[in-house]
Amino acid sequence: MNKFSTMDRRLFLRTSAAATAMTLAAPGIARAQAYPSRNINVIIPTAEGGGADRNFRAFTSVWKEKLGIEFEPGYYPGASGRVGYEVYMGKSEPDAYNLIFGNMGPEVLNWAMQKPTFNIDDYFYFGRVDTDPCCLFVGAESPLQTMDDIISEGKKRRLTVGTSRMAHPASIGLLALGEKVGVEFNLIPLQGGKGTIAGAVTGEVDFSVLTSGSVIAAGKSVKTLLVFGQNRVGEALNNAPDINDAYGMELPEMLSARAFAIHKKAAEDHPDRYEVLTRTFKETFDDPRLLEAYVANKGTPEYLNYGGAEDCAAFMKAMLELGERYKPLLSGA
């Protein structure tokens, strides 16, 4: 062996040893390019234990295994969801390690009613978990057991109606109904789905309007009388009719749709990370464990369906247009 090959060999060995020592001393270096390398924070702009939280827990119980990390939720209820978005856009780093999981229907309607402090184009929804039509329901012991009862009583006095938040697709459906049948309703925000259901059950309000998935989860304590869209679950919503069929209306389907959103800057600055998120999000829908987890968390199977960034963008645009159209009704409620 000549001296040059011996020197090359010694150099190779020294270099390899140094690299090995560095890796052992700082194992994170070898994983620096992996994403995600730590847990992902998710802001939920509604209360813990509500419909969004249940869907979040169901979905992430499977999604986390695709990513090999945990999702760490933070709850920021208040101001009809505004607080959570303000915190997310104002304090969360746009690094794809911070997401928000919200209810696109009512939360986008917020921006139509009053613009937030941030630019709404600076975030976008990329993964829809479900679509959930809104409905009108009474407590099981309510004296108002039919829509005829409600309209007849509404001719005599102004009925009180619980809603989870004023700017909500369910609120729009109700006010449009009132215009159609000539009855005025007094909408009362009851801070989330649990409060809205409790208001109807206890008689705090005459009846309530809400996303139907949460109403189904309430079981026999409530009775659904009208769906602001197609009744896809039949008896689970007491075979209640579609508002358009029942009253000859042409109202757009009033939906809630829970979805994950991300900073626009995070997706632009870290396209590789965004690709991992969107790919594994979609893969989660192909996993049979998702439906099991969704049902176990009181989700309605018929409402579970995938939506990507384009679907979410179309829905957001529709909600903004809907908000502008019905803003006078909501403002005067």
Can you describe this structure in just a few lines?
It contains 13 helices and 12 strands.
Can you tag this structure with a few keywords?
333 residues; alpha/beta; D-Maltodextrin-Binding Protein, domain 2; 13 helices; 12 strands; 20% strand; globular
Question: Can you tell me about this structure?
Answer:
It is a single chain. The protein is α/β, with parallel strands linked by helices and 333 residues long. The chain folds into 2 domains: 40-131 and 257-331, D-Maltodextrin-Binding Protein, domain 2 (3-Layer(aba) Sandwich); 134-247, Periplasmic binding protein-like II (D-Maltodextrin-Binding Protein, domain 2, 3-Layer(aba) Sandwich), CATH 3.40.190.10. It is 47% helix and 20% strand. It contains 13 helices and 12 strands. The strands form 2 sheets. A 6-stranded mixed sheet has the order 2-1-3-11-4-12, sandwiched between helices. Strands 5, 6, 7, 8, 9 and 10 form a 6-stranded mixed sheet that branches. The longest helix is centred in the first third of the chain and has 23 residues, at 3-25. It is globular, with a radius of gyration of 25 Å.
**Strand order in space, largest sheet:** 2-1-3-11-4-12
Q: What CATH architecture label of the largest domain applies?
A: 3-Layer(aba) Sandwich
Task: Quote the average pLDDT.
Answer: 89
SSE run: HEHEHEHEEHEHEHEHEHEEHHHEH
Helix share bin: 40-55%
Write the layout of secondary structure elements.
Layout: H1 3-25, E1 40-44, H2 51-67, E2 71-75, H3 82-91, E3 98-103, H4 104-113, E4 123-130, E5 132-139, H5 147-154, E6 159-163, H6 169-181, E7 185-189, H7 193-202, E8 207-211, H8 212-217, E9 222-227, H9 243-247, E10 255-256, E11 258-263, H10 264-269, H11 271-285, H12 288-296, E12 304-307, H13 309-331
Parallel strand pairs: 1-2, 1-3, 6-7, 6-8
Antiparallel strand pairs: 3-11, 4-11, 4-12, 5-8, 5-9, 5-10
Helix pairs in contact: 2-11, 2-12, 4-13
